[in-house]
Amino acid sequence: MNFGHVLTAMVTPFNQSGDIDFEATRGLVNYLIANGSDGLVVAGTTGESPTLTHEEKLHLFRFVVEEVNGRVPVIAGTGSNNTRASIELSKEAEAIGVDAVMLVTPFYNKPSQEGLFQHFSTIAESITLPIMLYNIPGRSVINMTPDTVVRLAQIKNIVAIKEASGDLDQMTEIISNTPDSFSVFSGEDSQTLPTLAVGGTGIVSVSSHVIGNEMQQMVQYYRNGDVANAAAMHRYLLPLIKALFSAPNPTAVKEALNRIGVPVGGVRLPLVPLNDQERDALYHILSHYDAEKVAGY
């Protein structure tokens, strides 16, 4: 399945009561599609999946699928550290009509590599949807090795990975030993261009909430052979990317979206809003970026 090159790991908008704000979600979906997103990942880490209930996830999947109406792929975050629960949610997401699911490496219970293989292959057998694996050692504690990914890539409906280890050597090994049809996406915004350079497909991005068109432009520069402009765009975007990760994700990107006029509300506990110093620093970067953007890149 062709997911495109810039996928947005979408935040989940909340209202003042802390419930999902579906009207704000409608606005966000359309804003993202209009501003560089080739696809949407719903209820991933950036969507605050740990604090969404099972029913909230289903309502969110259904709403986004209906609002997108086939314009871009919708990838549902259905992974957890409970294989049976992941199967149940994946089956329900498939029935709702999502285009694919994303499955994170199990966190906290620390399975072996064989345990990881059995976890993902068992879920894959239970559905027909395309599957994107998600390796993020910084959050799950364990690292899925290239050998395990290569084994899993032999399963028909496991078609991609979001690789957020930050290890380009690991990413290169995966790309070298999986079929050309297997897509490798960076899970680190700052590694978008390096990922493309070693043969990766693109990015599952947080920053694309704010700079989606610019991320898309950078990818297209590189794909068209204009490496110099791609590199210049990378350098231009990097300070803002860093600012959007200055606090536990998605705290800063939600603050930035609210600031630029795309209302998404706050975060749920145990996440907390930016403090005054963090907010001032983010606003300073945003204003500098906006000034440059007006002047023309």
Give the termini separation.
33 Å
Name the CATH architecture. Answer: Alpha-Beta Barrel
Strand content: 5-15%
The CATH class: Alpha Beta
Low-confidence stretches: none
Instruction: Work out the number of β strands.
Output: 8
Q: What are the secondary-structure elements, in order, as H or E?
A: EHEHEHEHEHHEHEHEHHHH
Number of helices: 12
User: What would you call the shape?
Assistant: globular
Main sheet? 8 strands, parallel, barrel
Percent helix: 40-55%
* Count of folded domains: 1
**Roughly what is the average pLDDT, rounded to an integer?**
96
CATH homologous superfamily caption? Aldolase class I
The CATH topology label is TIM Barrel
Describe this structure in words.
The protein is an alpha/beta fold. The chain has one domain: Aldolase class I (TIM Barrel), CATH 3.20.20.70. The chain contains twelve helices and eight strands. The chain has an eight-stranded parallel barrel, surrounded by five helices. Helix 4 (113-126) packs parallel to helix 6 (146-152), helix 9 (208-223) packs antiparallel against helix 10 and helix 11 (251-259) crosses helix 12 (276-295). The longest helix is centred in the C-terminal third of the chain and has 20 residues, at 276-295. It is globular, with a radius of gyration of 18 Å. The model has no long low-confidence stretch (mean pLDDT 96).
